[in-house]
Amino acid sequence: MLFRAVIWEWGTFRTARSLSRNEKKFRVRGGIADVTAVVTAMTDGERPHLPACLNAIIADPGIARVLLCVQDSNTWIDEMLKSVGPDSRIEVLRMSMDPAGAVRNEAVKHVETEWIAFCDGDDVWCEGKTAIQRHHADEQNADFVGGDHYLTDEAGRVRAVALAKYLPMTSTWMVRTSIMQQYPFKWEKKFNGIEDHQWWFDTMNVIKKDRCPRLLLKYRVRGFSLSSFEPSKARKARVVSFASKPVIGWAVFILTGCLWLVNRSKSYRPLLK
User: What is the mean pLDDT of residues 27-34?
Assistant: First the structure.
């Protein structure tokens, strides 16, 4: 049922809600771990947030492997991984500081599982993200499944619910590996920061994009990041700033949550260039 009860959260990193009975069944089936997470942490700005990102990913039931992309000159990643704890699924890929599309394309070359899920190093998945998406993919025979997301402040406190009607955040994407191999991101510098938009348009009539109308991501709105100069990021920053005010914050969270409920759908609206 589409309009099922949803437990929201505000100002915390706890899970949005427990897994459903079908999702729990999916968790224990053989061969569930068929998703490779591609995590990008190419700047020092991700450093304080990366442990929360990785802990959520390695706790996800569908993850077989984690490819952690860092700059080749990175000096802190080994020390940071000690705070996450030993996990043989995590593999560090060192590469030059290229546009995000080129970084993800390089990581895709190392993927051997059926599915890929992307995540920026400062974002955090909600509990059971890939199990929920894999269940949706099985039901809908989908090759691409996006999800909806919360907006959090830099400290990770949930402040609002995004509508995500047109294009899902890349950190929610789960895509068949064969799709990303056949249709890689545009890597040229002019597409840096909009490589997801360009991919969306390039594959518009080729790949059916399914929307899983569930809150699967906590998108961190930082004061400064590689996407700070994008208009959509500026809008998110204004919402989070306003929602961080005492008393008003609850009103913003409830209002955006109600708007999200009204706009929930299993498909995305057409996005114009």
Answer: 58
